[in-house]
Amino acid sequence: MNDFTFQNPTTLVFGKESTDQLPQMIEKYTEGKNILLTYGGGSIKKTGLYDRVIKLLEGYNVFELAGIEPNPRLSTVKKGVQAVKDNNIDFIVAIGGGSVIDGTKLISAASTSDVDPWDIVTRKATVESAVPFGTILTISATGSEMNSGSVITNWETNEKLGWGSPLVFPKFSLLNPELLYTLPKNQTANGIIDSMSHLLEQYFNEASNTEIGDAMISGVMKAIMKAGPVAMEQPENYEARETTMLGATVALNGFMRLGYAGDWATHNLEHAVSAVYDIPHGVGLAIIFPEWMRYVSKKSPARFIKFAEDVFDVDSSLSDEEKINFGIDAISNFWTSLGAPTKLSEVGVKEEDLEVFAEKTLIYGPYGNFYKLQKEDIMAIYHAAL
Amino acid sequence: MNDFTFQNPTTLVFGKESTDQLPQMIEKYTEGKNILLTYGGGSIKKTGLYDRVIKLLEGYNVFELAGIEPNPRLSTVKKGVQAVKDNNIDFIVAIGGGSVIDGTKLISAASTSDVDPWDIVTRKATVESAVPFGTILTISATGSEMNSGSVITNWETNEKLGWGSPLVFPKFSLLNPELLYTLPKNQTANGIIDSMSHLLEQYFNEASNTEIGDAMISGVMKAIMKAGPVAMEQPENYEARETTMLGATVALNGFMRLGYAGDWATHNLEHAVSAVYDIPHGVGLAIIFPEWMRYVSKKSPARFIKFAEDVFDVDSSLSDEEKINFGIDAISNFWTSLGAPTKLSEVGVKEEDLEVFAEKTLIYGPYGNFYKLQKEDIMAIYHAAL
């Protein structure tokens, strides 16, 4: 492992009764009464969650920022910053999935100064303070509910970039698996793919002797792969929702990467695509990750053999190449079985886009901590995924 | 799983350079200059760690409480409380293993009021505030460096009891695997046994659908069982120390028990013994845990079958009973291979003690969250372990 420092101060409240703890949790962090609710397209009004939250917040002055998009947009974040400033907001409650939470993180960080929010994302400005916020999770996927990272899309420049600050850990996140019962099937699938992708990014890391991490990652991956199809077929199966929901949270709350960062090249490759084609992150990952694996396994095979052993108990009589292919095919086939597309062309991407994507991903230079991708590597992976 | 709330605010600093971060870390939590160093029998003076820490603390007023015992004693804690009050201590630095840290936790919690420290342990008094403290870990075993629990022995009453408070999470813990190089072999063994016991206590829990936890627990246990014998044979093998050290921390920092408490009966059974016979906790656990497993597996076998599958990939053609015995024997034999005794009589316990132990463990009534032990169960387990 590499030397590391780990801290995750978020309080995770998990279970059927978790939503009801909202007022008590807010009280721990502010005596103020001005709350900003942030949410997405309004499904929380259909499900009744909105009404329940409003009732729980009796006695507070509740302001709202509705309409945070999937792939949350800078323009919407700016509206949120204005809302916080105009209304002297003391605490923000984000209700939604990773997009709503990621957007809320930037609102939180950009509202205590006059900095341009995009300067925070592009590292031109540092976060010195943030408005405290908590979350109620309605889509399980990104792990944003228990980490300090965020991904924001700037549609003016077609850039989708990740940023983070220890100041934007949610103070608390309330996770009730029952809130996932009404998720459309494709969102359930995308969440499973996204959480598995996070595990893959961390499994393929830059460190040696990662036995503890390898064991936890492969164990959580197996649990998600067992519960995931049940959640797809039986949307109201509590145990399946419970496992996939907790799995997605631990997949990216830092527990799985004590002593390394992980590769994260595939996330860059995907962000370049979804900054132009507004596709769900999980869809992009399902297409690109297997191609990243196939390409990089030819350059650096050993880890891919261990992967097939750790996660799929691959038959020890197979050749190294067969083991590698077994592991990659198992991931790819699993995602296909959830209904994910396998080619970028299926979601509208054209060959002439690939060069543009590649240039965009290279904004900070060659990248990937497990295997550093140069432009020719990136183009080869994109072409294979087309 | 059961509904749960998880938070662990401790900052974990891990690696070869971790000790040097002491002054920066203290500065985050206090502007005061009065530091109390707590430590054990003085091995830190032989290894040079003491001198290094004193040098790192230049500019601070350093006071000391030396001599915190294995199985830390109430009488010593009281001296520490006095030292904090006499010297207006702003921050405590615990240098040692679980005993030093557990003692420091009670000093921390009892120094901000005039409460009798034992009343905190026996839950007659609640902790309202605590002096902040950090740790430098020199023995890897209990996980106390990243949790809010503590076990204290009262030699006046021969009681050894656990207690805890969210206020006594260490602010930070600095873990350098190299500091373990000089550990005596038996302390390395006891640490491995202790950390595995924590995993066992949590694996045998009261909840259903614990797939995420089961996967993490069995994975970490496998990693410890692989690295442990290497650390025994090659005390200066960095990777083996790294794996067992991180394994012991995650084994009891809450990561492994999201959604359940675990059983914890065996810890009670052991504490009753080591409150009278001053044996290392790991030794007591190595003797008693396999007997608890043998006894309880007859009453509630299903979980023991899954255990053998999860941790030891037990041959699926075996009968249920054979699988159960395979798993228990594998644990017991592994601990014996580390040099642990297998019988209480080997450490001096006499048959007439058993009744006294049993009464002591029942102070709060029948116990064990996976399987509730009555007095006859307890006596049967003690007899088998004698």
Automatic annotation (TrEMBL), chains A, B:
CDD domains: BDH. InterPro entries: ADH_Fe/GldA (IPR001670), ADH_Fe_C (IPR056798), ADH_Fe_CS (IPR018211), BDH-like (IPR044731). The keyword Oxidoreductase applies. Gene3D superfamilies: 3.40.50.1970, Dehydroquinate synthase-like - alpha domain. One of its GO terms (cellular component) is cytosol. This is NADH-dependent alcohol dehydrogenase. Pfam families: ADH_Fe_C, Fe-ADH. Residues 188-386 form the Fe-containing alcohol dehydrogenase-like C-terminal domain. Keywords: Oxidoreductase. PANTHER family: ALCOHOL DEHYDROGENASE YQHD. Residues 9-177 form the Alcohol dehydrogenase iron-type/glycerol dehydrogenase GldA domain.
